[in-house]
Amino acid sequence: MTKRLSSAFFARPVDLVARELIGVRFLVAGVGGLIVETESYDQSDPASHCFQGRRTPGNEAMYGPPGHAYVYRSYGMHWCINFTCGNGSAALIRALEPVAGVETMVARRGVEDVRKLCAGPGRLCQALGLSRMHDGASLLRTPFELRERGAPVSVAVGVRIGITRAVDLPRRFGMRGSRFLSRGIRE
DNA sequence: ACTACGATGAACT
DNA sequence: GTTCATCGTAGTA
What is the pLDDT of residues A95-107, one digit of tens each? Predict the structure, then answer.
């Protein structure tokens, strides 16, 4: 088994962390898979919840220590999870390649197609059972398990999805050739 | 109290 | 590729 990620992994520039998260094994209570798609956000980014140091009751976790979960509700109905990297920055986890607990994920999602279990931030959170109760929790402790990638991967960089501000920034990272992305990467 | 708006997903052509 | 249902959150008053 590969090594667990340390808090130092997250205490670095968010673009680097988001890139290096590709291929990392991410489990919640034993259910999950390999991270194949991320996006980065920080205070300088007009598309970020923390743009220019903006603070709301909901985004406090992004100003907390690196290596914690920032879970927010999207469109009033989906949950999305970010890994905090300090100082109002975080990497949004957008898609996983399902590896462990596939039956559990199928039951939670109500779909059979493995490619649709974790392809998208909302789907991924539903499949892993993530919600507001995980907001602010440390990623280094139970129920989370994050392990270094076992083999090198090729990372594609493109523009982000589903935002209306700063649409041209190259802050989306994906595992090149993966069939489990929420969408193809536009490089 | 009232309103506007999504870091989406599902269904559809 | 496209449309659109849906509702919590945050901003305004």
Answer: 999 999 999 999 9
